Amino acid sequence: MAKTKENTFSTYLGKTNKELMVLLNDEMSSLFDMRMKHKTGQMNETHNLKLARKKIAQIKTAMNVNKERENQS
């Protein structure tokens, strides 16, 4: 059975820019914490750094899509 992704890009498209800003701030703070743990050698699962950067990029892209939709209306 295939795994389902709970935070795919399509879920971000259904949110407002205010909700996306909250998600972006949370994700950026967690990325900062992960970077500090990685630098001090406390982090074992370094792949989470890449996943966090990917989520941040998806959130920013969804914000740009929402902005374009507002401009077209």
Entry summary:
The protein is mainly alpha-helical and 73 residues long. It contains three helices and no strands. It has one domain (18-72).
Defining traits:
3 helices; 73 residues; mainly alpha
Give the SSE layout.
Elements: H1 9-13, H2 17-40, H3 47-72
Written overview of the protein:
The protein has 73 residues and is mostly helical. The chain has one domain. 75% of the residues lie in helices and 0% in strands. The longest helix is centred in the C-terminal third of the chain and has 26 residues. The chain is elongated, with a radius of gyration of 15 Å. The chain starts with 8 loop residues before the first helix and ends with a helix. The model has no long low-confidence stretch (mean pLDDT 91).
- Helical element count? 3
- Integer tally of domains: 1
The chain-level structural class is mainly alpha
Helix content: over 70%
- What overall geometry do the principal axes of the alpha carbons give? elongated
Poorly predicted sequence stretches spanning 5 or more consecutive residues: none
